[in-house]
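Pipeline run #58 for the internal structure catalog. This entry was flagged by the ingest filter as a single-chain record with no existing model, so it goes straight to prediction. Upstream metadata was stripped on purpose; only the residue string is passed forward. Reviewer on rotation: M.T. Logging verbosity set to normal.
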Amino acid sequence: MKQNILFLLGVVFSLSIVAQTKLDSVQKLEEVVLNDVKLSQNAAGFKVTVLNDSILSKNNSTFTNLLRFNSNIYFKENGYGMVSSPSFRGTNASQTAVIWNGISINSQLNGQTDFNTINTNNINQVVIRNGGGSVQYGSGAIGGSIHLDNTLDFSSHLKNDVKLNYGSFNTKNVSFVTDYGNEKFAFNIGVNYIDSENDYKYLSKDQVNENGAFNNLSLSANLGYFISDKDVIKLYHQSFLGEREFSGTTATPSKSKYEDRNSRSMLEWARNGLSYTSALKVAYIKEHFDFFQNKDSEFFSFGEVSTLLLKHNFDYKLSKTLSVKSILDYNYFEGEGSSFGEPNRRAFSATGLLQYNPNKKVNLGFNVRQDVMSNFKSPLLFSMDGAFRFSNHYKLKINGSKNFRVPTFNDLYWQPGGNLDLVPESSYQVDLGHVVSFNWLRFQLNTYYISTEDLIQWQPGSSGFWSPQNIAKSHSYGTEVGVDITKTFNKHQLKFTSNYSYTVSENLETNKQLIYVPFHKANVSLAYSFNKFSAYYQHLFNGSVFTTADNLKGSFYSLEPYDVANLGLDYKIIKTTKNELDLGINISNIFNEIYQNVAFRPMPNRNFNIQLHYKF
């Protein structure tokens, strides 16, 4: 394998003079636990959904399925376990930012994140932030952002978590997480291995999913140490090693194979005071793939990108009602590949954020950002947001922003198909949200409008190759509805969650809906627990989507709507203060629905999974 060595010297210097105050221990713990502080402090006017540790721990399927059944996001998946990419508010996968502990991990090759290469085994919290976020998170955060957070607990504890899964299609999944902490030192380490033959039957056809086997190994390690009362050093690392056979379509068989070797490491020095916080991050990210057209051959194509990131955050509280934050960010990207040569890119950004909270009922934010890139001229970005509480039960949220996305290495240089004439996308959007809440009920209604110029979209060409094009203008608008109900009767607990989205995303030159954007998507989840027993039911409705830009109807040009349902049962065999042993069974696609979310690539028939989950 060809190796690329990245060597870069970078210096970020920041001088801040502040009053030295004694650190408050409660504030210190909060700042340490929250890795992406600006997400919690600078998103008052945005719709934010949190999937906490209790939801993640019960997920024994893919990250794609977790979000598919618990959010408004639509996913394209080239068959189960294959490449998975999101569509967020009618935008494409490159316009959805994925943020790992405060830094973007979107691929520099295609601008996307393959959600089937992310394992949530040692992720403590997933946060979904709807709406534009380029000011805070850079290129690509147009439709929204998905945040993967690791937390460090500086209290005296030792916890261990083991999961053993076996399911249909000879699927095996083993994971182990250990978490330790005291008042000065904390760490958590997780390892996960998945292996599946993935040879499910194509319903209504005399075929199975041939050449669809996959396996992957994930490793994560996070640790933190207080070097003084005010200073903490934190180290985060994740590695992913995966091998997937790429299944073909119903008409075309495949013998191809794809190997991933991805890693990301970040060192952070955080200093916390009563009126200020300062954090310096240094990160190194490596993504590498090998593609074998014939898995039995020794010949393959490859691609890789190395990223060095330096980032400094400084947050100062001017008064009880006013705070300011500065963010300096430098990135160097260096790529090499069989199909795109040896491109590189440098990017620097300076961001200022102002937060004004005159009282407990009003939260206002104003933010600006300027990027300087070696390849493109970047616009001045801004965002404004506000939250207004009119009563104990009603809150109004509003935000507006200008966002952008630069072409990726694949967009520009991929052969065949790359387009050197591409220009960056620019986007304006506004979002209005209503939140009604009671002790047992939370109702959210959001309406939004996104106007995009020079939208980059890969489309099939007359030559048979896909190629990216700048669509002169496009817009997206729609409505999102969310309902959460939780009721407790003695020892009985019932939780109902539902999401619905109506999305129009059009090319304004043709007035045609963009491909793979459903007009309607809805999901419902009902969970019940009593003593040692719990159960859940999930239901997903996905409306029809067009697969070609001309919006022709028919099986060759669009995908039919579908309903998919899952059922899960769980029983605590052991439950003491120090030990828990759960036995669970999950049935996916219980009604044996025939469906596809990418043309000619059927999804699995009814399938089962059994899990043993031991905490000690």
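catalog note: The longest helix spans residues 25-33.
catalog note: The helical segments are 25-33, 37-41, 53-57, 63-68, 134-137, 409-413.
status: ready for reviewer M.T.
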